[in-house]
Amino acid sequence: MQTKPNREEISATYGWYRQMRETQPVFFDQNVQGWHLFRYEDVARVLSDHATFSSDESNFLPPEYRNATPISSSLLRMDPPRHRKLRNLVSQAFTPRMVAHMEERITEITNGLLDQVQTAGEMDVIRDLAYPLPVTVIAELLGIPAERREEFKQWSDALVSGDEGTTEEARLAVIQAVKQATDSMSAYFTEVFEERRVHPHNDLVSALLAAQVDGERLSNEDLIGFCVLLLVAGNETTTNLLGNAILCLDEHPEAVQRLRANRDLVPSALEEALRYYSPVKLTVRGTTAETSIGDQRIEAGKLLFVWIASANRDEAQFPDADQFMIEREPNRHLGFGRGIHFCLGAPLARLEAKIALNAMLDRLPGSWHVSDAPLSLINSSSVFGVKTLPLIWGK
Fold this sequence. Notes:
Number of domains: 1
CATH architecture: Orthogonal Bundle
Distance between the termini: 20 Å
Helix content: 40-55%
Low-confidence stretches: none
Shape: globular
Strand content: 5-15%
CATH class: Mainly Alpha
Strand order of the largest sheet: 1-2-10-7-3
Number of strands: 12
Order of helices and strands: HEEHEHHHEHHHHHEEHHHEEEEHHEE
C-alpha cells in the first residue's frame, strides 16, 4: 500500500494506540487527572457497566466543565433510570420499521446528489455526498428547513471540534465558538418549540413536544439536548463513516472490485470501516466506586478516557487487526459503542452508508482514486474523519 501525504499522521496515531496497549494499557494522565484505557476488553467492560462507570458528567467532571453544550444534558450524559425512560421515548423514531420507511427518501437524496457530480468524473466525497446526505435526512426528521442547514453544519462542527489548542488564545477561541454555537442552537430550537406547540407538524420535534415521561412533559433543556444530539450525532457520525469507508477503499483498491462483483459484501465492508477507522475515537466515563481495571486500582469519581479507536485495533480481539478485511467475521467492533448508550441512530447510519456506497458503485465506474493532496483531518479529540476527500474515477 502506498502511503500518501498526511496519512503518516493517521498511521502514527494508530501506532501510538498499539504502543499503549502493549506497554501502558491503563494509564494515569497527570495533566488531566484521568485514566486512559486502550484495550478492547477494558473499553468494552467500561461501556457495558453503567453502574460502575457513569456517563453523568456531574459524577466526574469539575463544575466548570459540566453542561458545556446542550449535548451535556442529553441522553449521552445520562444514567438510568432517567436515561432508560427518555431513550425509550426517542427510540420510537428509530425502530426498524421507521428506518426502513426512510429508505426510499434516502435513495432519492443520494441520487440527487450524485446527479450533480457524475458526469464530471470527480467529486469531493465529503462536500458532495457524505455531509449533505445525513444532514438532510436528520434535518427533515427534525423539520428544519433547507435554508438553515448550512448554519447547523457550522454549529455542529463547532461542538465536535473541541480541542483547545496549545495557547491560551486558541483555547479561548474554541470556548467562544462552542458558546456561540450552543447559544444559536438553543435559541433556534426554543423558537421552533414555541411554533410547534401552536402549529404541530408531522415531525420528530412535534412528537417530542407531545410526549410525556412519568406524566410530565419534557423540559426545554431535555428537548434541546435531544435535538442537538440527534443533529450532531446524525450528521457527524454518518459523514465520517462514509468518508472513512472511502479512505479504506482507496487504500485497498482491490476491495472496490470485489464489492462491484458481490454487493452482498457492502454491509460487512462498512462494518469493517467502522472498526478500522472508527468515526468515534474517544468517549468519557467516570467511576462511581473504587474499582480495578487491569492491574490498576482506580478510585471513585475518576475521569476515564475510553479509546474506542484503539480497542477496535486490539489484536487480542481482532486477528490481523491492522488489516482491512471486508469479510471479517466475527466483527464485534465498538464503533457504535456498547451497552445502554449503544448509538440510537446506528440503523439509520448503516442504511444511509449502504445506500450511498451502493449508489457510488452503480454510478462511478472504473477504479477510484483519492487525490494525492494532503488530507486535512477534523480537529477533534473525540471524532475521526477528514474535512475534504477529492475522488476521481474512470477506466
